[in-house]
Amino acid sequence: MLVFLHGVGDGDPTGSWLKALNDGLVEAGYEPLDKSQTIAPRYSDLLETDGIRASLPARTYSAKDEDARRRDYERRQARVSRLIGHDPDAWATGLEAVPEVVVDVVQRTIVDRRLAQLGQVDRYIDNEGLRGAILRRVLEALPAEGEIVIVGHSLGSVVAIDLLDHLPPTLRVRRLITLGSPAGSSFIHNKCERLLKRFPYGIVEDWANVYGRGDVVTAGRGLAGTFPAAQDFVVAVGPRHYAKAYFEHPSVRTLVGEAMHGFQDKSVVPVERSVELRIPAPVEQAVFFLAFAHHVRRKIDDRKVAERYEQALSLVQEDMANRLKVMLVNEGRPVPPLVDTLGDGKPPRSHRDWDLDSAIDPLVLCALSNLVQPYDINPGKAPTAALRDMAIEVGIQPESGTTIGKAIQEVRGVLEASSGVPWTRIAVGLGGVALLAAGPLGIALAAPVGLSGAAAITSALATFGPGGMVGGIALLGGLASTGAAVTTGAVAAGAGDAPLEQIVIDLTARISAARARQLLDLSIDPILWFHVVALEAELAAELNRLEPLSDSNSPRLKDLRRKRDVVRRALSYMTSKNMQPRQLESGIEAEPAA
After folding, report:
1. Helix or strand or coil: residue 39?
2. Contact 355, 410 (CB under 8 A)
3. pLDDT means per 10 residues in the chain (594 residues)?
4. What does 314-340 look like in DSSP terms, one character per residue?
5. For the whole model, what pTM was predicted?
6. Considering only CA atoms, which of 191, 189, 281 is closest in space to residue 230?
7. Which residues lie below 8 Å from residue 259, measured CB to CB, with a gap of 6+?
């Protein structure tokens, strides 16, 4: 059953939306929908009547095993991304490139003049009695159980989002499709916490938000930045906002047709992944990082820099293949064919799907690392841009890659400002310190040929000075096995003796990964909070010990104070984002997990 939630106006009593949709379905090779297969509740009379009052329906969604549900949801979202892909005719830029204050003024003008679209959206969100009445009318029209596909256009998309955690527990949403949604625009965004307290990953299969960059109702912006569960698709509809304009687009036809009838469009072939069994963890990780480096190469805008990066990457990849062979042979393990193919210089591909949780840490570390170490080439913004493409390669939705990049930029902005250390000096100038945190790739490049296992790790850590990388042993050990390593241990070397740059790298990697998990609706390991608190305590204790007898302008004290200030800035940021353990928020004494 398809449920259509209309936008503003008279609610389309003639059902022209269905004709527009069916025309598109037939053109795409799908059977048209019979009216009996659709539900289109009308609520325009409620929007036009003053004094409407009804209590909000109860929230029905029961959260259970949400991390597991979130990971399964991510896999389904990645499948949708592969299904419809990217619209090459979509504008490269649109209203999202216009300063937000300008777009906001335009939208507010529409609201103030009560011109249809945003005026009624604003009224719906602000008037709780109206919200309750509309939600109850829609719920009365829905079946009590089974599967539905929800398509919400404009105001209808806001109603659809609001509806999700009020649905009957036995009703499943096979696909949510929002078209031309205003919910991502700034003045609506500020009120969106009223719409959806918790996304029901357990009952919604996937969510595709389709919008045009010239559509003023959307402000040319998607929903993924507001709702982590949404996956944005930009389509070429020009400045049009009508539902018909969206239904005419091939992406919307495919989304509706595939959800209602199953996959039919033979011109679109879902990606199939070959699986090479028993690939050693160091090889798997090396392939991951090398594949990411090739995505970085493609994203470098400066042609001359890109050429140098490509040449350096070719040398690094060949050396990597040789060192991996030596490492595996010395450990008495067979060398898989995949290692031999690395020597040809072609971009390797990850040979398995990663779940969202385990992909976050290596993606963060790749984006923060100089992947062509020992060559120093600044790729600019290319590593952040590469996150989206690498996300697709490893089987998670591209918007998750974008969200991870957002988390990294947030944390870097906080820690760079407080440390005074330019990131280019950290990621490039130190020649691979960040790369060492990336695990086997760093080991293979840093350790002398002939060493393997613990000897290789020890040698690689020693290469970078006394004590090695802050947290390096924990990062290396965890990442080599599962990929979930950024928050799995205490500092390997004393914080007082570690260089400031290493502390900044350690905190940036750990907190960026945790922030990405938070933005993607995954749980944060509480150990991270205790790790940062312990860092602050260690630095404070060292300062308390040295300050009474040392010169006030002692370089040692200045260094310790800078480190303490960085850690405090990190704690302040984590507190502002509610990243502390929930037990602490509720005032219950908490202990870190063993």
Report:
1. strand
2. no
3. 89 88 91 94 88 89 87 85 76 48 48 50 84 94 95 94 93 95 71 75 94 83 86 88 90 93 48 48 81 94 94 87 81 82 83 79 86 84 94 89 94 81 53 38 40 40 31 32 31 66 84 94 89 88 89 90 91 92 56 42
4. HHHHHHHHHHHHHHHHHTT----HHHH
5. 0.72
6. 189
7. 149, 174, 175, 177
d(CA 435, CA 454): 18
Q: What is the dihedral of CA 436, 592, 66, 227, to 10 degrees?
A: -70
CA angle 25, 28, 29 (to 5 degrees): 90
Distances (CA, A) of 52 to 48, 122, 124, 141: 9, 15, 11, 19
Residues in Cβ contact with 219 at an 8 Å cutoff, skipping those fewer than 6 apart: 95, 96, 100, 103, 104, 107, 182, 184, 185, 186
Q: What is the DSSP secondary-structure string of 341-363?
A: HHTT-PPP---SPPPHHHHHHHH
Nearest to 189 by CA among 227, 153, 160: 227
Largest CA distance in the chain: 86
Q: Which of 206, 135, 174 is nearest to 37 (CA)?
A: 174
Phi-psi region of 11 (alpha: psi -120 to 50; beta: other; left: phi over 0): left
Q: How many CA atoms lie within 13 A of 136 on its CB side?
A: 14
Counts for the chain of helices (H) and strands (E), in that order? 25, 6
Token digits for 498?
Answer: 């570690």
The per-residue DSSP string of 177-235 comes to EEES--TTSHHHHTTGGGT-SS--TTTB--EEEEE-TT-TTTTT--STTT-TT-EEEE-
Report DSSP letters for 377-408, one per residue: ---TTHHHHHHHHHHHHTTS-HHHHHHHHHHH
DSSP 592: -
Residue type (1 letter), 258: E
Residue 132 and residue 135: Cα distance in Å, rounded?
A: 5
Token pair 């990697």 is found at 509
Q: Say how far residue 121 (Cα) sits from the centre of its chain.
A: 28
Query: How would you label 557-593 residue by residue, b for 16+ Cβ within 10 Å and e otherwise?
Result: beebebbbebbbbbbebbeebebbbeeeeeeeebeee
